[in-house]
Design goal:
Elements: E1 7-13, E2 21-27, E3 32-35, E4 43-44, E5 49-50, E6 59-62, E7 68-71, H1 74-84, H2 92-98, H3 100-132, H4 135-142, H5 145-152, E8 155-156, H6 161-175, E9 185-190, E10 198-200, E11 205-209, H7 210-213, H8 219-234, H9 237-256, H10 259-267, H11 269-274, H12 280-296, H13 302-313, H14 317-323, H15 329-345, H16 364-375
Parallel strand pairs: 9-11
Antiparallel strand pairs: 1-2, 1-7, 2-3, 3-4, 5-6, 6-7, 8-9, 10-11
Helix pairs in contact: 3-9, 6-8, 8-12, 8-13, 9-10, 13-15, 13-16, 14-15
Length: 377
């Protein structure tokens, strides 16, 4: 090692073989780098690439010919870099990494920003985008969703042709008073594990399960749920939810770089839709649409409150235990009435199925009371 020149101890890799050689790297005032006791040609500092300092990890100097120099003497590398490059950014990563307070504050800030963006930014953005997209966009995004649901959860309806015709006529009658509802359609499915439920899909399809229809013998009860789901369609809630989930996937990729996790979010969108994964504001908007329609067309709002109580009760242990004894229509109605009365008489909350209709909804009691209080006036 030359005593006249500043030198750095490390290992040299020629880039051609796997072997390494312990050497001293020296540098001259004219910017040339070389190695002592070797025949390696000196290289200009400007032509090499030096890895950033991160903690006390080894540093690497990459040469144009593919060779590499590795050293643990970070301080000596910093001195050399400062000698030839006085950039204010040199060593910044190391300084930030060493500043624990800054790192902690940055982490907290990132978490807070992420929460605010997911909680408020995504819903607001998705709403604005959905409002500006043409109707064709909803139909495009909704294509194939029902097919996926049929393969995974639903089966063919068991409702009689006569019952289906009556409900379809009721649906068409409701639509005649609703602008922009021409493309809305109603389909029936047996829900199976999903149970009594109704869903509004992005393409304008409303799915109602047999289990929901069988909870009542009053078609106006069913009409109130139809209006609620139409409210979701009018406000483009399914489209907004889809955009929101897709935006979440993009956000995950931007933050973590994990494409696999974001992909799972997107593929779960059909599940989210049947789970009625709408926000509290969306549910309130759909409720308000149904309520306004019922008041303006002389339909007693209590029908919605009654149906809500029955929907809640349909997931209770009381109803499930009763219904397992028979599948006769008359007994189904008896079981649901029994479960409703039981829920009214006890403060114990009914058990929830994994796909409980109310898992992501606002307080069911508040919604019921809202419709009942208006019905009394």
């Amino acid at each position: 090692m030359s005593s006249a020149l500043p030198s750095i101890k490390g290992s040299y890799f020629d880039g051609q073989t796997s072997g390494k050689k312990d050497v001293w790297l020296y540098y001259k005032e004219n910017g040339l780098l070389g190695f002592t006791d070797t025949n390696i040609t000196e290289t200009p500092f400007a032509s090499v690439q030096i890895s950033s300092r991160i903690g006390n990890t080894p540093r690497f100097i990459n040469f144009p010919d593919g060779a590499q120099f590795e050293t643990n003497d970070n301080d000596a590398i910093d001195v050399m870099v400062k000698t030839f490059n006085s950039s204010l950014f040199q060593g910044l990563i190391h300084k930030l990494e060493s500043a624990k307070t800054f790192v902690i504050a940055t982490t907290i800030g990132l978490v807070v920003f992420g929460w605010l963006f997911v909680q408020y930014g995504l819903p607001y953005t998705s709403k604005k985008i959905a409002e500006r997209l043409p109707d064709k966009a909803s139909h495009y995004l909704g294509q194939g969703v029902l097919d996926i649901l049929d393969k995974q959860w639903f089966s063919k309806t068991k409702l009689s042709d006569e019952k289906q015709q009556v409900l379809q006529s009721l649906f068409q009658e409701l639509k005649t008073n609703i602008e922009g509802s021409n493309n809305y359609k109603l389909v029936f499915r047996t829900g199976g594990d999903i149970g009594a439920n109704a869903f509004a899909l992005p393409d304008g399809t409303i799915v109602m399960t047999d289990e929901l229809i069988n909870l009542t013998d009053d078609n106006l009860d069913i009409a109130s749920i139809m209006l609620h789901e139409i409210g979701h369609l009018k406000q483009r809630h399914s489209l907004r939810a889809t955009i929101q989930k897709s935006g979440l996937a993009i956000f995950i990729v931007a933050i973590t770089g994990d494409v696999s996790t974001s992909s799972s979010v997107i593929t779960a969108i059909p599940y989210v839709l049947i789970e009625s994964g709408f926000s509290q504001d969306m549910e309130t908007e759909a409720d308000s649409f149904a309520l306004d329609y019922m008041l303006s067309h002389q339909i007693n709002p209590e029908h919605f409150a009654i149906m809500m109580e029955k929907l809640i009760a349909s997931f209770s242990d009381k109803y499930i235990d009763c219904i397992e004894q028979t599948e006769e229509k008359s007994t189904v109605l008896e079981c649901i009435e029994l479960a409703v009365e039981h829920n009214r008489a006890t403060t114990t909350k009914p058990s929830k199925n994994l796909l409980d209709y109310f898992s992501t909804h606002p307080s069911s009691e508040e919604r019921i009371e809202r419709f009942k209080s208006i019905a009394k006036h």
